[in-house]
Design goal:
This protein has two domains: 172 residues, HUPs (Rossmann fold); 90 residues, Pantoate--beta-alanine Ligase, Chain: A,domain 2 (2-Layer Sandwich), CATH 3.30.1300.10. The chain contains ten helices and nine strands. It has a six-stranded parallel beta sheet, with helices on both faces. Strands 7-8-9 form a three-stranded antiparallel beta sheet. The longest helix is centred in the middle third of the chain and has 16 residues. With 280 residues, it is of the alpha/beta class. The protein binds pantoate.
């Protein structure tokens, strides 16, 4: 597996691939790789001739009081995991490669970035769209793979690709879960033993809502029930529970609609977990 650190190294690496019209699949990550990240590459392998990952803990998507400094890092472990699934190349830029001194340009998708997670994480999605558009320009991928756990991120990035006419096919891959249903996430390592034991309440409440959707008269009633289920877990502090349409995250008015997404953010101690499930 090739380890690429600079933009010119990436350009040299992709030049012959582009000349041969090879399909480049790309998985952008912030490292601390888990099975969810690996599933993205495994899916990409079916479709692409060349598979490239990036590992970059992107400072512009963290707020001033967020976990940038303590975000889990395990570069040696990550490289071993990527080698094990035959990744062709990994781009591991330094901060100054992506954001050189006097960096001034940001990419922002209006509205979609201000709802759900964007309410408490101001500028988070602007950081994500900025870094991903830069990575797309550098790697010149044909296809890009993202996890469905971060569904708002995926929908925002898809809109960016559409609005900016980027020639990238956007693919979302199912969430990988622990045996008890907790969605795999690099941030799960922050949970104490008690918080880890409490966290699967998110999955259980979403499964129950999916099973019972026909019993509710209104979105509000369903949300209230999910709220009650999660609140029975004393360590869970709910930030939001919402129903949104899967294609564009607009608000659901009627439970008989197709493509209803239950989406939530809940804190366990200082750790904020997000998850979602398609109810129909
Ligand atoms: O989902 C992530 O890990 C990050 O938001 C991404 C897409 C790699 C951008 O930094």
């Amino acid at each position: 597996m090739k380890i690429l650190k600079t933009i010119s190294e990436v350009k040299e690496y992709i030049k012959p691939l582009k000349l041969k019209d090879q399909i480049i699949g790309f998985v952008p990550t912030m490292g601390a790789l888990h099975d969810g990240h690996i599933a993205l590459g495994e899916e990409a392998r079916y479709e692409c001739d060349c598979l490239i990952y990036s590992i970059f803990v992107n400072p512009t998507q963290f707020g001033p009081n967020e976990d940038l400094d303590k975000y889990p890092r395990d570069l040696d472990g990550d490289i071993a995991k990527l080698e094990a699934i035959d990744v062709d190349a990994v781009f591991i830029p330094d901060r100054s490669v992506i954001y050189p001194e006097n960096y001034k340009t940001y990419v922002k998708v209006d509205e979609l970035g201000n709802i759900l997670c964007g309410k408490s994480r101001v500028d988070h999605f602007q950081g994500v769209t900025t870094v991903v558009s830069k990575l797309f320009n550098i790697v010149q991928c044909d296809e890009a793979y993202f996890g469905k756990k971060d569904i708002q991120q995926f929908i925002i990035l898809k809109k960016m690709v559409e609005d900016l006419n980027m020639p990238v096919k956007m693919i979302s891959v199912d969430t990988v879960r622990e045996d008890d249903g907790l969605a795999k996430s690099s941030r799960n390592t922050y949970l104490s033993a008690d918080e880890r034991a409490a966290a699967p309440v998110l999955y259980r409440s979403m499964v129950t809502a999916k099973k019972n959707i026909d019993l509710y008269f209104s979105p509000e009633e369903l949300i209230e029930d999910v709220h009650t289920m999660i609140s029975m877990e004393p360590l869970a502090k709910i930030e939001y529970i919402e129903l949104r349409r899967y294609n564009d995250l607009s608000e659901v008015e009627d439970l008989s609609e197709e493509g209803i997404l239950l989406i939530l953010a809940v804190r366990f101690g200082t750790t904020r977990l997000i998850d979602n499930m398609l109810l129909r």
